[in-house]
């Protein structure tokens, strides 16, 4: 676990899982706003960091466990509004609901609520604009601080050259979202798994170009009659660490199928 700062942003870097130290998650806190809550498996370490922060608002980028695992604890310990994509509100509201028996043993209960993102989240110093960015998940939201050029990107960036996808990821949605982001002014990407990316807009452009060209090549091979296995061998012959670490949840097969299935070819 490591605390660092970038400009006015407090950053907590921690392993996603104690047994898998290679993959990190970065939690961001700025002027009362906490971006995501981190994985519950790291509860003890994360609580230590949260106790030093005055959390007044929580911005959820999407509903994967490593981003919302500590949401109930945050809701029970800070009087904070919790913002998420509209479609995620029902599930997250159930997660932060305080059990009836808790009032028997605790005198402090906060009325934290999960609500859809407003047009902007304001603090005394900053303004954060939520931008719907489906691709990694259908409920994914990035947060832009336009005056500082910060883009809190959740899991939307991670790498400009992905070779594996989760089953629900959509390359078509990624491309649409990347094209949308290209119209915004930002410099620095604050990624949930890669940390601070200073040349963030350029790296997002590289990701857009890569996804467009890769999808085109995969569709061509598919239309020529190549099987999925043959396309994988041709396009991505090397095994990917994340594929092995996730026991196939992230896979090259998911990636290449997303390239052609959404086009109807």
TrEMBL record:
Q: Residue ranges of the Metallo-beta-lactamase domain?
A: 24-193
Q: Which Gene3D superfamilies match?
A: Ribonuclease Z/Hydroxyacylglutathione hydrolase-like
Under the heading InterPro entries, the entry gives: Metallo-B-lactamas, RibonucZ/Hydroxyglut_hydro, Sec-metab_biosynth-thioest
The family database entries (PANTHER family) matched by this protein are listed as:
ENDORIBONUCLEASE LACTB2
Return the SUPFAM superfamilies for the record. Answer: Metallo-hydrolase/oxidoreductase
Q: What is this protein called?
A: Glyoxylase-like metal-dependent hydrolase (Beta-lactamase superfamily II)
Classification from the root reads: Bacteria, Bacillati, Bacillota, Bacilli, Bacillales
